[in-house]
Write a structure and sequence with these properties.
about 15% strand, single chain, about 40% helix, alpha/beta, eight-stranded mixed sheet, about 475 residues
Length: about 475
């Protein structure tokens, strides 16, 4: 008997992979899953490719697609753990090496990281993680000479796991470049809290059409300060939950639901949702009473939006257009611009974000956001309002954009958001009256995940 990838026993089976010596060998159970994890980790960290794309069941990494679903689940668990804790893993491994690995040994570094993530953070037998990592090193002609080193480092990591976890517990789990940006804006203590919040499991939040308290009771959840419902842990998939088929609610992080709620009652108003897909905010605007035009540049994203609205039994006009060139026949009463951004507020759900982005991309995206916002201003009536938002933690993509636009656009003014209207989220309202949530906000009752995505939102009114 041997162990499969989740540590359970299964019957021994011989397979016939070719080894580096040209002989037939027995395939170690779980080897292909760990090899896929190392390849994808390299793609994320070294080539800056998004994790979601690599794990797509249709168009993802070929090594991942070739796996059975159990092994795919293991790959996802390994990668999420490795990326969430990467600075601590790298610090721990470095402390066990007499000298750094050669510059050209990146593939070996990823093999060790994958094994270390299992040893330190996953419920996988340590010996399986060690043995397979050694096997991976032996199978790669570039790394075969390091196989004994891999064995020694990982076995020591296993033996000293408790001490090592304690020793490196204070290492921030975000990249140094981003921690420095957070500290400059929020201060060292807040930056550490935001970083540590990445390690908390992300919640499942629902936006409901109506009767949040009733749905909280039906689904074993509780009502959020945003008016949505947060679920406790449950087994099964989202579509199995009561109310899904009927379109009574949709999944949407608490922070992501805030921008659309800033408008209040939209009855009788013509509303544009720019950058509308996948449609959660569009649905909110419709439920609030607006006659909504949802605009997206991509036909594929428009199709996804329509599918989501169909499930919810909601209707909106949909337009595929370049937002910078879009001109309506009639100006709108209200516009929501949830602009494309670096997504640095979503690392609880997408731990790869900070390893695929950098300062230069934040600056580039800030420029895109400013162009979109300036064009959006031309689409709203006098007396109408615009909410500008995104899921970045960096003021370069939020406060700075709005400040520049208002500085030379006298026809618009900022509408201050009142903390008294947001009990439980008063801390998220800035002195200038804008929303700025961070992942360490929103304490919750026992049994529920705390926190929410990092989000920025500001409301502007056309006065002339």
């Amino acid at each position: 008997m041997v162990l499969n990838s989740d540590g359970k026993k299964k019957p021994f089976r011989k397979q016939k992979p070719s080894t580096s010596h040209g002989t037939e060998a027995v395939e170690k159970p779980g080897l292909q899953a760990r090899a896929a994890a190392a390849k994808i980790l390299s793609a994320v960290v070294d080539r800056k490719l998004p994790l979601d794309g690599a794990l797509d069941h249709e168009h993802g990494n070929p090594a991942y697609k070739a796996l059975a679903e159990d092994d795919r689940a293991l790959v996802r668990a390994i990668l999420n753990s490795a990326l969430r804790h990467l600075p601590r893993i790298e610090a721990a491994v470095s402390s066990l090496l007499d000298s750094p690995l050669p510059e050209g040994a990146r593939a070996l570094q990823h093999v060790i990281t994958v094994a270390a993530a299992q040893i330190l953070y996953l419920d996988v037998p340590d010996h399986a993680a060690v043995d397979i990592a050694v096997e991976q090193a032996n199978r790669d002609p570039r790394n075969r000479r390091f196989a004994k080193l891999v064995n020694a480092v990982l076995r020591r990591l296993s033996r000293e796991k408790v001490e090592i976890l304690e020793q490196f517990n204070s290492v921030p789990v975000m990249p140094e470049w981003f921690i420095q940006r957070l500290e400059a804006v929020y201060g060292a203590d807040a930056a550490r809290a935001i970083s540590n919040a990445q390690l908390e499991p992300a919640s499942i939040d629902l936006t409901v059409k109506a009767d949040a308290a009733i749905w909280a009771e039906r689904l074993n959840g509780f009502v959020l300060p945003t008016g949505g419902v947060r679920l406790a842990a449950f087994e099964g998939g989202i579509p199995s939950l009561q109310g899904f088929e009927e379109g009574s609610w949709w999944v949407q992080d608490a922070a992501a639901s805030i921008p659309a709620k800033l408008f209040g009652d939209l009855t009788g108003k013509r509303v544009a949702d720019l950058c509308a897909a996948p449609g959660g905010k569009t649905a909110q605007l419709i439920v609030a009473g607006g006659t909504v035009t949802a605009i997206e540049q991509s036909e594929n994203r428009i199709r996804r939006l329509r599918s989501n609205l169909d499930r919810l039994g909601l209707e909106a006009e949909t337009v595929a257009a370049d937002l910078t060139k879009y001109q309506p026949h009639e100006l709108f009463d209200a516009i929501l611009l949830d602009a494309p951004c670096s997504s640095t507020g979503t690392t609880r759900r997408h731990p790869d974000v900070l390893w695929t982005k950098g300062p230069e991309e934040i600056e580039k995206l800030a420029g895109v956001q400013e162009r979109l916002l300036r064009h959006a201003l031309t689409l709203v009536k006098t007396g109408g309002v615009i909410v500008f938002s995104n899921c970045s933690l960096d003021p370069a993509e939020g406060e700075d954009v709005v400040a520049r636009v208002l500085a030379d656009t006298p026809a618009f003014e900022r509408v201050a958001i009142q903390p008294s209207r947001w009990p439980g989220l008063e801390r998220a309202i800035t002195p200038s009256g804008e929303f700025r949530t961070t992942p360490d906000m929103l304490a919750t009752p026992d049994g529920f995940a705390s926190g929410l995505d990092g989000f920025y939102a500001a409301m502007l009114r056309r006065v002339a």
